[in-house]
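Sanity check

After download, print the first record. It should look like this:
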Amino acid sequence: IGNACLLALSRLASPHAIAQLGRLQARAKHASTRKQITRAFERAAEAAGMTEADLVELSVPTFGLQDTGTLTEPFHEFVAEVIVHANRKPALLWKNSAGKTQKSVPARAKADAAEQLQGLKKKIKDIATLMPAIRSRVEQLLRDERRWPLQDFYERYAQHPLVGVVANCLIWVLESPGKQVAAFWTGSVWVDVHDQAIDWIDAETTVTIWHPLHAPAAEVMQWRQWLEEKQITQPFKQAHREIYILTDAERQTNSYSNRFASHIVRQHQFAALCQQRGWKYTLQGDFDSCNVPALDLPEHDLRAEFHAFPLDEDSEVTPAFIYVNVATEQVCFCRSGGYEPVPLAEIPPRIFSEVMRDVDLFVGVASVANDPDWRPAEEHPHFDYWQQYGFGQLSATAATRQEVLQRVVPRLAIADQCRFEGRFLVVAGALRTYKIHLGSGNVLMSPNDQYLCIVPKRGSGTKRTDNLYLPFAGDNTLSVILSKALLLAQDDKIKDRTIANQIRRP
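Expected C-alpha cells:
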C-alpha cells in the first residue's frame, strides 16, 4: 500500500504531492522506503520535464499564507493569526474586533465554525510537519553549492511564504559580473555586514548560499556580531558553522581520516542521526548485518563512508539481537559505484568540511560519554574512554559552543557566579562549586571533582532557556549546559531528590 501511495504521489506531480514526498523523504527510516521515494522523485521530475531540485523548489505549497510566515483567517468577529517559526511549531493567536489577543479558541468559533476551525488546525499540522523537511533541504544547500538567478531566488526562497521563514534568517552571496558580496535580505532590501544597502543589483545578479569556509575570519566574526545585534536566531548554524580543514595527519594517511575513530556510540541514536542527515545506515546486530554508514554525493561523483563496527564478540545486544553500542573507525571517500578510496586532497574543501561536520555531530551527540545514565565503573573496559571524552579536549562543535557561551553567560542573572576555566564553565552555587564540560555537558562538583548525574528534562530538575537569545537553533547540548548552570547556581533550592541527594552527600 505504501509503494502504491508513493507511485500515486509521483504521478500527481502537484505541489502538495511533491511536498508530501519531501516530508516522507525526511522521515523515512528504512533503506528500501527511501529508495522508493527517490524513484518517485525521479518519475515526478521526468514527467514535469525538470530537474529534481527545481521540481522540489517549485512545488512547496503556500497553505494560503499571505505574507512570509503569517496566515490570517476571519472567524466572525475574531481573526485567527498563525505565525510560522523555523524551529518551533506554528503559533495560533486569536484577535477580537478590538484587536485584543488571546490564545484560547473563542467559544463562538467552536460552536458556529467548527468545520472551518478543523480545517485551520489541519493546515497548521501540515505546516508543522513540512517545516523540518524545508529546513533540512535548505541546510543541505551548504553542501550542494546551488546557484539561482535573482528572480528565481525571490520566487522560491526569499518571497516564498513558507520557505522564506527559513531563508530570510540566512546569509547569501550576491554576484554580478565583476562584483560579489555577502548579504542579508531584510524583506525589502539587501544589506551587507555593515548594514549598508546594496545598490548594484540587476537582472544578471545570481544568488548562492554563504559558507564561512570561503570567507575571511574577520568577515565571519562581523556576521556573528551583526546577527547578535539584530537578535536574529538562525534556523541552523551558518555564521557559527564549524569548518574542517585537511590536517597534516590526514595528508599522511592520504585516503582516509582517523579524526573521529575509536569512539563508542549508542547505535540506535547514531542510526537516527544518520537518517536525519541523509546518510544510509541500517542497524547492525548479532547476525550477518555488517554495513557501512554512507552518504551519496552524486553531483560530485562521490560517496562518503564512516566505518563503524561492533565493539567485540561480547558486545551488549537488545532483545532483538541489535548491538547497543558500536565503535567508530575511519572516514573515507569513494567514487559513486566504486570502492577504491579517493585521496582526501582531491575532495572539494566544502564537501570535506560538511561531511566531517556530520561525523563530528554523530560522535558528539551519540557518544556514550554524553549519556548521564551510562557511567561505567572504573574496572569497566570502556571507563577510560568515558573519562577522556566526557571531560576531555573540546571538539570543533564544542569550541563553537564555548564561544557562544562566553557571549551569552555575561548577560545572565547568574553571571557573577560563573567563570570559564579551559574546557569548563564553572558555576559557584550556595553549597558547592560545579564544573560543566563544554563538550559533553557532564558535571563535576567540588571537592575532588565528584561526578554529578543530571538527566536533562523539562520540569523541576532544570531551568528553561526558551527566553534566552541564542544565535542559532539545533544545539541541544548548548541549551542543556545553560539549563544546568541556571539550576546549579541555586543548588540550595533544588527539590529534585536524585540531584539534591548527590549534592548534599558528604
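If your output differs, re-run the checksum step. Summary of this record's structure: The chain is about 40% helix and 20% strand.
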